[in-house]
Design a protein that fits this description.
It is built from 21 helices and 6 strands. By secondary structure, the protein is mainly alpha-helical. The strands form 2 sheets. It has a 3-stranded mixed β-sheet. The protein has a 3-stranded mixed β-sheet with strand order 4-5-6. A hairpin with a 5-residue loop joins β5 and β6. It is globular and about 90 Å long.
């Protein structure tokens, strides 16, 4: 597999060089022939590189020279910014053709990103029935199941025979998103069952659909959050899941290829939030495409909040100034204790947030998680303290009471940090918010303040300060 990826990368690199060389020499047809050696996904990637190296005009020239069916597939794979740039240059008829030929779910994705005036023009030339359906899809709230579903599915009637069902699939299958799972509706369009293509193929021709369909199945409400939908795909391993409205009428299906994009988006969002990044730029642009000022705006709020939090940490140090002046060596161990507390707290938070995302952990597991993290924290704290006791006495040549102060504080700090890191995500989840919003830097700052308080209290206890 690694060799295949290496070959692909090498072919892409060589292909790009030939394409750029042909474009420089104005050999446009040669450049087109070269790019057509690749599939639509790779062509979209190559066009991005062409834009970067030769400008959007050259990209549009190449795009216009692609066969119509290929250009539609490539357009669906292009990043939003490149799509919009191409739309700004090509004419209305070209835009209308592309939108018309796109799969319905891709069509909705593209229309959501296009300028409003362009969308209006496209909808004017769209048949009334399809226009109504498009408007319905465009009006679903962001990030719900309705925005990622497609109405292109195979629908069967319960009284049909297997032979009639297979004939129907042969007629309609080319326009469906998938034929591997078919959906059975009653007269009121309510979903009453599902049947797989494999079941149809191995069943006798005269058997009725109602006798072989499954009436127990997983489904999603049209307003369900897409993160929950992604979790269901991960849990059950389905290729498609039906989507119903509040009256249990089948309105569409979600396929696994669309959910893979959602999983990537949600993972990226969680990683950014855990890093304390608030994304004010609601776009799919990559790191290098986002302007510097936007990066500043995304990162600054949490940093300001954390900076204020550290003011309290400074106040704690100031209040124990007398203790520090009597045993100045205590200062040397403050960074180690604060860092250890922050790191252990972040470890616990990361594990629990992931557990919540994959449904391995539930808010109801509060007690079990707390007890486990206390034990983990105790063992880690004791082991780290034993190492540090030897270091402080043998290498730093400090007294045993100073070593005892530092090591006892470390045990307490590690236990507290583990409890804090594991409990906050569970509490936030219970309150209905996203646990990833509790960024690891925030947990670290709270842990630092508590770590110093514990440290100085231990100094009073063991050193009598």
């Amino acid at each position: 597999m690694a060799e295949m990826n290496l070959d692909r990368d090498l072919l892409m690199e060589e292909g790009l060089e030939k394409i750029l060389s042909n474009l420089d020499e104005k050999k446009y047809f040669s450049a087109r022939d070269e790019i057509l050696k690749f599939n639509s996904v790779d062509i979209a990637e190559l066009l991005e590189e062409v834009t970067e190296n030769s400008g959007i005009q050259m990209t549009v020239i190449l795009f216009r020279m692609l066969p119509k069916d290929v250009s539609v597939e490539v357009f669906a794979e292009l990043p939003v910014d490149d799509r919009n740039k191409i739309v700004d240059i090509i004419n209305d008829k070209e835009i209308e053709y592309i939108i018309k030929e796109l799969d319905f779910d891709d069509k909705i994705d593209v229309l959501e990103e296009l300028p409003a005036n362009v969308v209006s023009k496209i909808l004017e030339s769209t048949p009334k029935s399809e226009r109504r359906l498009i408007n319905t899809f465009l009006n679903y709230p962001d990030n719900c199941a309705g925005t990622i579903m497609t109405p292109d599915y195979i629908s069967l009637k319960k009284d049909w025979s297997v032979r009639e069902a297979l004939d129907h699939i042969k007629r309609e299958g080319m326009d469906a998103e998938t034929i591997y799972t078919c959906y059975v509706k009653d007269m009121g369009r309510k979903l009453i069952g599902i049947v797989s293509l494999s079941t149809l193929v191995i069943s006798d021709d005269d058997i009725r659909i109602k006798d072989i369909m499954r009436t127990e199945f997983v489904y999603e409400n049209v307003y369900e959050d897409q993160e929950k939908v992604a979790a269901d795909f991960t849990r059950y391993g389905f290729l498609a899941i039906p989507v119903v409205d509040n009256e249990f009428r089948l309105v569409g299906i979600i396929t696994v290829d669309d959910i893979l994009d959602i999983i990537e988006e949600e993972t990226t969002e969680d990683i950014e939030r855990m890093g304390g990044i608030i994304d004010f730029d609601d776009s799919d642009r990559g790191y290098l495409d986002v302007p510097v000022i936007q990066h500043v705006l995304n990162r600054l709020p949490w940093l300001v909040i954390l900076m204020i939090a550290y003011v309290f940490t400074g106040m704690i140090i100031t209040s124990f100034e007398g203790t520090l002046s009597q045993v100045i060596s205590l200062v040397a161990y403050m960074p180690m204790l604060m860092g250890t507390g922050g790191n252990t707290g972040s470890q616990a938070a990361t594990l629990i947030i992931r557990g919540l995302a994959t449904d391995e952990v539930e808010p109801e597991d509060f007690g079990k998680v707390l007890w486990k993290e206390i034990r983990v924290g105790l063992i880690i704290g004791v082991l780290l303290s034993a190492i540090n006791f030897l270091r402080i006495v043998l290498f730093d040549h400090e007294g045993s009471m100073v070593a005892l102060t530092v090591c006892t504080a470390m045990i307490c700090i590690v236990i507290f940090a583990k409890m804090l890191g594991s409990m906050i995500p569970l509490i936030v989840k219970k309150l209905g918010a996203d646990p990833a919003l509790i960024a690891n830097p925030a947990i670290s700052s709270i842990s630092d303040a508590v770590a110093l308080t514990i440290y100085f209290l231990m100094a009073k206890v063991f050193l009598g300060l």
